[in-house]
Give the backbone structure.
Amino acid sequence: MPSLAARARGRAGRGSGELSAPRLRRDTPERAGLDPAELRHLVHEVHALTAGERPWAAGAVVVAGRGPVVAVSEAAGWAVRYASYDPGTDHGIELAPEERVPATVDTPFDLASVTKLFTAVAAVQQIERGTLGIDALVGAYLPEFHAAAVHGITVRQLLTHTSGLRPELPLYDRPDPASRLAMLRAEPPVGVPGTYTYSDLNMLLLQHVLERVTGRPLDVLVHEGITRPLGMAATGFGPCPGAAATEDQRRPWAKAERGMLRGEVHDENAWALGGVAGHAGLFSTAPDLAIFCRTLLAGGSYGPARILGPDFVELLLAPPGLGFAVDQPYFMGELAGRGAAGHAGFTGTSVVLDPVTDTFLVLLANTVHPRRRPPNSKPRAAAATCLARAVRGK
């Protein structure tokens, strides 16, 4: 089977060799080569996720398609349903019906760890330009990050979560930016480098590397290198006042006392770092993320814009993935197994793209509204499975 890069070259539409890809359009499942019955089931399941007294999420939006065709675009439930959370009754205190805000297809959601995909693309853009070495030592760019320098952590290890760094640090408990930075600089690996341990710290260090080699902050890199050229006008770091609400964030179930959050990043470390972080902080809509998926499936191009060359998209998505999770059934369902890539976020978000079938699925939800619960990715996996079966059904 041809590689993603080869397929993308085959789609190049200009004599100069410049890559071009058609823009997304809304059309029928049949035009997308998808089974309409399976997609109707997907829509039904998404609505069911937001129903009842204790729904999986207060609100949810799903966009799915194949090739340049968006075959499903559906919203269910509420972007804002609760005023607060009552720990005594373990229930959310609901707003009056007229005060609730329904979810729409264009509702922005807090992406949580789906942000990591954008940090990864920004890094691979610098690798393509030759300003960043994939196997370079982090200490070569950030000598003041003593622990990373001493232990020989590489850029590739950050991108593949094989640095040995612990999953997170309580930066939110430090009183000022200087002490938070000092904590990050001094953090040594606790695991064996080369062994997979998922860690937010990898993307925080990568953010500092990118900002050092480019001289620009991460939010500017994402805007100028990804969202602006692709026309993703609804995607950016917060604040985002119209976003779906997340959590009534209070101790002891949370790590900070912030009250009901809407439009401010949910992740406590990203909040402590000012809302712009390599691991969390972006807000986006499902249609914008569909463009992001389509761009990568088309080898880095969307319309007249190119954010990566096809060989570098292939580098990004090839197992084990650079910032992207690859073939993870827990949220990819039956799409996993042949090179599907994407990410899930703590707030209830997920993105999956499958180069083999040229399909994509975006599921955005606020599962932490009104408060966080033990993670449950079964609905995300079930949605991806519906799409996988829609392909097979044709």
